[in-house]
From TrEMBL:
A family per Pfam: Complex1_LYR
The protein's name: Complex 1 LYR protein domain-containing protein
Source organism superkingdom: Eukaryota
Species annotation: Spumella elongata
Sequence ranges assigned to domain Complex 1 LYR protein in this UniProt record: 13-65
Length: 135
């Protein structure tokens, strides 16, 4: 019974923190009311010992968290990487450069060849047998 109580407490604490985090991201007009409502709800359930009531309160809190996730605007992504880069460490410094490719004009990338063959097959070119008579 003690471990079940501890598990419910840790789950409710995680739920409380997540709800507050999302409520802080609400627009200014709704932010304070949302935070205060979350705090009041959890304080009201603090003294409850009835397992059925605790379960119902946690289900309602999970539902509210789902709603907060929907209505909360997403935060802008920080530092979105564009393209591929290669990081080289050496001489106690970091250098960014374009990735080096083993595939040049004199040899071909096996993945590119396989993709090309799949595209030809999908387009209806089964093999090169129909072209042999023209050369």
């Amino acid at each position: 019974a003690c471990s079940a109580t501890a598990m419910v407490l840790s789950h409710s604490l995680i739920l409380y923190r997540n709800m507050l985090r999302y409520a802080r991201s609400l627009p200014a007009a709704k932010r304070n009311d949302g935070i205060e409502q979350i705090r009041k709800g959890f304080r009201a359930g603090k003294e409850t010992d009835d397992p059925a009531l605790i379960k119902a309160m946690l289900e309602k809190a999970n539902s509210t968290l789902g709603y907060l996730k929907i209505v909360t605007p997403r935060s802008p992504k920080q530092h979105v990487q564009t393209g591929k880069t290669k990081t080289v460490f050496g001489d106690d410094s970091m250098k960014l450069s374009r990735p080096v490719s083993n595939w040049t004009g004199s040899n071909m990338d096996p993945d590119s060849v396989a993709r090309h063959e799949r595209s030809l097959k999908r387009a209806g070119f089964k093999n090169n047998a129909d072209m042999k008579g023209f050369f």
